[in-house]
Design a protein that fits this description.
This protein has one domain: TIM Barrel. The longest helix is centred in the middle third of the chain and has 18 residues, at about 215-235. The protein starts with a strand and ends with a helix. Strands 1, 2, 3, 4, 5, 15, 16, 17 and 18 form a 9-stranded mixed beta sheet that branches. A 9-stranded parallel beta sheet has the order 13-12-11-10-9-8-7-6-14. The chain is built from 16 helices and 18 strands. The protein is an alpha/beta fold. Bound molecules: dihydropyrimidine-2,4(1H,3H)-dione (DUC) and zinc ion (2 copies). Dihydropyrimidine-2,4(1H,3H)-dione binds near residues 240, 241, 291 and 318.
């Protein structure tokens, strides 16, 4: 299969230039001009920007909800990532009931996601069933299988998700021996429980009490503690879904002192306000309940700046598509609302519209935080996350002229709602290629799921900071 992408402006994390791309056998075979046919397909990208396909560092499909028991929307909803220009998702794999992490990864790849994942798929392990040494021994095997990252939840005490500090420290000691990058959900569970329970005991049970009871200092404390561990143990870390100034400041300071720490934020923390949860109708307000919670304008301003200065390096979606019937479990008590928002399809659009088009971020920086740095963190670079000869022909061809208003009809999430409903959209992925195959054309998904497992290599981006 020979495909020509012509007349576009290629954007990478480092530069921007006009050239044509020749694709052969799923790879970029050459970059230049004057390529001669025959071609199986020619794509005219005149007036458009040719970006690497997005790499989403943070996706939860068919994932354990925050109750530690139930499961959110499945892999049949992953096509939304392609519509949004993301061609590789890095999905979290919690333990299947009674299974260790290694078997759970195999189960996810061979059963849950089999023939159902539309983009390419890489995996973060996520331990929810810790059994001492036999669990720690799995770290080496996971790395050998192409799973060089693992997330632990420092929040959600009382559920299977929660891991205490002794488990975090034990994993960090093991991970650094094998080049695994540890990741944490950093919120102090005791701070949260104190506020949440006392608020509920006073009869305050609506969704808005979710954000009122997860103070920024609870997030900043868990980030500080994790970074102290990281510095003292010499274990590189990624702090995911950073939402606020207090937590991001801890990361900025630690990085300036040489700590091996990478920060990730998410589009909803850059664009959406916590007051969305004030809506009097539960059915509306519950949609924005995610953790950490949405914050304030000052936090959003800080986070854009932090991305631009590489204090925070990655923007992941934290896609967690929770259908409304599940959100309604918390109708009488905000503490029972499963936490999370859909966003895999909205991530690149949000950064393009509210970053690039609004003048807050360059196109190169957008590529860096949405494609290149996440690929590096997960050991997928350069196969994923850039445009170069020999890499996978994953492309997101952005039409900068598109103007729209986001709704779940125009920007599907795989469930009933889109958390950016009513927001302005400027530009969109017009054509998306996954390993040279056109999967989105004129903004419409064409394909049948063809995603493949992409093994990651150990010693990802966070380990570079040790040098
Ligand atoms: N943390 C996540 O990373 N995703 C969904 C919910 C949560 O708390
Ligand atoms: Zn989390
Ligand atoms: Zn998440």
């Amino acid at each position: 299969m020979r495909v020509l992408v012509k007349n576009g402006t290629i954007v990478t994390a480092l530069n921007e230039y006009k050239a044509d791309l020749l694709i052969e056998d799923e790879k970029i075979a050459a970059i230049g001009t004057g390529f001669t046919g025959p071609f199986d397909k020619e794509i005219d990208a005149t007036g458009k920007y040719v970006l690497p396909g997005g790499v989403d560092n943070h996706a939860h499909f068919e994932a354990l909800n925050t109750d530690g028991k139930t499961t959110n929307a499945g892999y049949d909803t992953t096509y939304v990532a392609l519509l949004g220009g993301t061609t590789t998702i890095v999905d979290f794999c919690t333990n299947e009931p009674g299974m260790n992490m290694v078997d759970s990864v195999n189960y996810r790849l061979n059963v849950r996601a089999k023939d159902r994942c539309a983009p390419d798929l890489a995996i973060h392990a996520c331990c929810t069933d810790y059994r001492g040494q036999e669990t720690l021994d799995e770290v080496k095997t996971l790395v050998e299988m192409g799973v060089p990252t693992m997330k632990l939840f420092l929040a959600y005490k009382g559920t299977a998700l929660y891991m205490d500090d002794s488990k975090l420290l034990a994993f960090m000691n093991e991970a650094k021996k094998h080049g695994m990058t540890m990741m944490v959900h950093a919120e102090n569970p005791d701070v949260l429980d104190l506020y949440r329970n006392s608020m509920a005991e006073q009869g305050n049970l609506a969704p808005k009490y979710h954000y009122m009871t997860r103070p920024p200092f609870g997030e900043a404390e868990a980030v500080s503690r994790t970074i102290l561990f990281s510095k003292n143990l010499g274990c590189p870390m990624c702090i995911v879904h950073v939402s606020c100034i207090e937590a991001a400041e801890v990361i900025r300071k630690a990085r300036s002192e040489g700590a091996p720490v990478i920060g990730e934020t998410c589009p909803h923390y850059l664009v959406l306000d916590k007051h969305k949860m004030d809506h009097p109708d539960f059915d509306i307000a519950c949609r924005w309940v995610c953790s950490p919670p949405l914050r304030d304008q000052e936090d959003r301003d800080y986070l854009w700046n932090a991305l631009n200065r590489d204090w925070i390096s990655i923007c992941g979606s934290d896609n967690s598509s929770i259908p409304l019937y599940q959100k309604h479990w918390g109708e009488n008590d905000f503490r029972a609302i499963p936490n999370g928002c859909p966003g895999a399809g909205d991530r690149m659009n949000a950064l393009w519209t509210y970053g690039v088009m609004k003048g807050k971020m360059s196109r190169q920086k957008m590529v860096d935080v949405c494609c290149t740095q996440p690929a590096k963190l997960n050991g997928l670079y350069p196969r994923k996350g850039t445009i170069d000869v020999g890499v996978d022909a994953d492309l997101c061809i952005m039409d900068p002229e598109y103007k729209g208003t986001i709704s779940v009809e125009t920007n599907p999430t795989g469930i009933e709602y889109n958390v950016y409903e009513g927001c302005e959209q400027l530009g969109r992925p017009d054509t998306v290629l996954l390993r040279g195959h056109v999967v989105v054309e004129q903004g419409k998904y064409l394909g049948t799921p063809g995603g493949q497992f992409i093994p990651g290599k150990p010693y990802g981006l966070a380990y570079d900071l040790l040098k």
